[in-house]
Each structure stands twice: as structure tokens, then as C-alpha cells.
Design a protein that fits this description.
Blueprint (H helix, E strand, L loop, with lengths): L2 H8 L5 E4 L3 H12 L8 E4 L4 H10 L2 E3 L2 H7 L2 E4 L3 H11 L8 E4 L6 H8 L4 E5 L9 E7 L5 H12 L2 E5 L5 H9 L1 H18 L4 H22 L3 H8 L5 H11 L2 H21 L1
Parallel strand pairs: 1-2, 1-4, 2-3, 4-5, 5-6, 7-8
Antiparallel strand pairs: 6-7
Length: 279
Amino acid sequence: MEATQFLAIQTETYKLGFIGAGKMAESIAKGAVQSGCLPPPRISTSIHSNPARRLAFDSLGVKVLPQNRNVVEESDVVIFSVKPQVVRDVVLELRPLLTKDKLLVSIAAGTKLKDLQEWAGHSRFIRVVPNTPSAVGEAASVMCLGGAATEEDGELVAKLFGSVGKIWRADEKLFDAIVGLSGSGPAYIYLAIEALADGGVAAGLPRELAMGLASQTVLGAASMASKTGKHPGQLKDDVASPGGTTIAGIHELEKGGFRGTLMNAVVAAAKRSRELSQS
């Protein structure tokens, strides 16, 4: 049976397995269950000695199996969600079970498709770079298909990761830049939220109110940029009236090199991602 036929027939009944039961795997499993993409009995993972992780997956109704090999044997789609430094050993250990009728997916940071495919012994692999807001269903994920992954495979993975946010498709050569922007980007925004709240406190607001306003303001601004289709510069101009408070604040940000600093942060993180993927 050809791989294309396999998934075309089994799309509505496929079973999903996670090798690695960390927070990202939990987020994806939770999104798949809550969105109705997959019922809990069709999802499995293996947890050896971490009661908190077992409790998290048990609470979703996901099957927790004794060994990684049991997860692979049970699954049609296998997601490797282990740390980058151990993904090679894990894939090689499971290689005899990673047959071509199984779609393999990796979310291990910095691990290239060519290596994953070599370790697995075939190229029906998809690499995905998600980010931590998957925990609240607002991920920005990007995927790239391996040599033998079909369009149907890509659609299945897009639907799965679409259950925890938005997903794009891009050439793997762009992945280091993607890591620098969406992978590391949430941390930049957390710093901005903290700084906005500190500014509110410095201006006389109670800490709790300042933090709530800062968080909601960033959320609202991001929603405006995402949903209105307007360029961020236009949205900024809509807020900044002549001689008003907003343009005074923007002037201070420009004097501090705010935009250039953010750009430099993305470029620095992308550079570091390239260094790590080559080591």
C-alpha cells in the first residue's frame, strides 16, 4: 500500500504518538483533544518516572504506555518532542519500528530534516517549529516537508498544529530566521510587557493594575495587527494624534533605538540558531 493511500484512507482514524512528554507535547495533545481534531484514546505517549507529566496526560485522557517502542507500534503519526541533544539516539533506537507507513514529525529545535531522515532510514518526515504560546492555543508554527512526505501528510500536520494556533509552510533554509523571530519572540514580548508594567508603576499605577493593562494592551494590539489586515505603521499612526501623548512616547522609543534593538535581537537569535544547528 502506498503512503499516499495509507493516510488518505486513515485520515479520520489515525493514531498519534508522542516520543517525549514535555510541555510542548502536552500543549499539542490538549489542542488536538479540545478542538475535536483527535479523541484522547487515539493519542499516546510514554512516561517513565515523572508523576507530574503522567498526571498532565492522564487528565487529558491520553494513553500512557510503558515504553517508547509501544507508542511507535500503536501510532500512525509519531511526533518526536524530545530535547535536541537526545533526538539522534532516540530515533536510532526506534529505527527498526519507524516503517515507511508511519508519518514522522519532529519539533526538536535545530535538528535538520536531512539528519532526521538519515537516522530514521526514510524521508517521510515533517519538521515543525512551534513556539510556547501553543500552551494557550496561540502558537505560531512553521513546517517543512521531507522528501517522501505527501501533500496529504502536510495537510494532516497543518490541521493538527492548527489546533494550537496558526501554522505556515516554508523552506527549511528559513528556519533559523523563524526561530529568531517566532521561536524566541515571545520572550521579547514578555520583556516588553514587564517594561510597560514597570512604566505604569513608575507613573503611579498599582502593580496589579499595571500588569493587567500591559498584558491586555499587547494582546489587543496583536489582535488588531492580525485581524484588521492593516500595516502596523498605519495602526500606529491611528493612535498617534498630532502633538499628543502617544507621539511623545514614540519619540522616546525612537531615541532609544527600540525598533533597531528588536531587529538586532531577531538577527542575533537567528545567528545563534545557525551555530547550534551546525555544532
